[in-house]
Amino acid sequence: xxxxxxxxxxxxxxxxxxxxxxxxxxxxxxxxxxxxxxxxxxxxxxxxxxxxxxxxxxxxxxxxxxxxxxxxxxxxxxxxxxxxxxxxxxxxxxxxxxxxxxxxxxxxxxxxxxxxxxxxxxxxxxxxxxxxxxxxxxxxxxxxxxxxxxxxxxxxxxxxxxxxxxxxxxxx
Length: 172
Fold this sequence. Notes:
- Helices cover 81% and strands 0% of the residues.
- By secondary structure, it is mostly helical.
């Protein structure tokens, strides 16, 4: 598979996931999905905590890898654009709508916020099974912080923003 085909496939899968969530949850109240305006003061404080965690965890275990722009320069421009779209934007939006939107709302209603945070973080970590144990530990903490943001702000928008920033940092 060429870089363009791979990036296009990832973008398509993420876009399809977004559509499926939106269609499947049409009858679910917007507040349960977190599709409401957040408390931005709380969101900013959690965002700064999250960015600090992102940089500190990368400094500690170098999960991001080296700053190597060779693959970007070697790939066709369209592949790079599609990669950023898929990994930097569509993927995080899809994952957050599913985990901190749909699943969090459903689990929170049935089991409470703490269980929703823990279960969505665990499920989300398992989704990223292809990484090593150290990176999975980082991803688990990421999931807990994303769940905390969803719970404390009442909205899925701050976790989406946090996840987008994280992935853009990771992909570049």
